[in-house]
Amino acid sequence: MKIKESVKKALFPPAKALLVIDLLTVILLIFALGFPQFAGYSAYVIYLFSVYALTVTIIGIKRLVQYIKLLVKNDRIPVVVQLNKLLHKSKFLGRYIDDKDFRAEISLYAGLAINLLYGVFKGATGALYGSAWLWSMGIYYLAIGGIRFMLMRGIGKQLQTGDTAAVKLHEYRIYRRCGVMMLFMNITVAGLAIQMIWQNKANEYSRTVVIISAAYTFYSFILAFVNMISFRKRNNAILLAAKDLTFCGAVMSMLSLQTSMLYAFDESRDGFRQMFNSITGGFVIAIVLGISTYMMIHGTRKIKMLSE
Known about the structure:
Layout (H helix, E strand, L loop, with lengths): L1 H10 L3 H20 L1 H4 L2 H32 L4 H10 L3 H8 L1 H30 L2 H26 L6 H36 L7 H25 L5 H29 L4 H38 L1
Helix pairs in contact: 2-4, 6-7, 7-8, 8-9, 8-11, 9-11, 9-12, 10-11, 11-12
């Protein structure tokens, strides 16, 4: 009974403790990636702790977001209070804080810009290190940027008619189209990932490349979880497509980061790297292909229902 309670407390920590765990994880990862000569074997412990932090954050993301909102709304953080007053002096920033629809639209623009920059970065490092895997990931993120642009155009056109049924039909057509594009894109990247894992190949990258990849991975997961909370109750299929797209990009980024970190911190145990990459790679590929397939099937059903 005590073991069960201990496991429950470990997997469901209070929101305040969860916030501390996440901040500590960021600090430890910066230390492990920025100062590998001091990290040594502790890098393995830090990496495992980051996996634990990611797991409990996924489980408790709703409690964490609610706790942060409570701190902000109740004016418990003086710095946030002063910052909020300062931001509301700007019409644009004030609208961004108060208007959910406007905030969702801006998040798509921001995601597009970051996707394109990261795609160019991956492609450039692929050319620098002669890595087909980095090249493919660069093209993958540029393709995600293209899909985001399609979603942005869809949101811009969805309110041009007052017919609710027509608006929903338009949304689900874009939702299904997004699923089709993601499926073909993920099948291609999955094939390259399987080949890389099977042949146990990877390039040795600089610490800067690994740190930037880690930063983008954390950004992707944070954005994915924020969208999961923000868009969950919104009756908008285009925003749901953006949520799924962000999550798929995040888990693919995690796979890419893992391969880089294992080759950066474990130069001798080829069997361990191949096994770990195979487990994570199989899990990630199953997730992205499953989500893409679901979007196609669900979108087709909704379109058929709305057409009738």
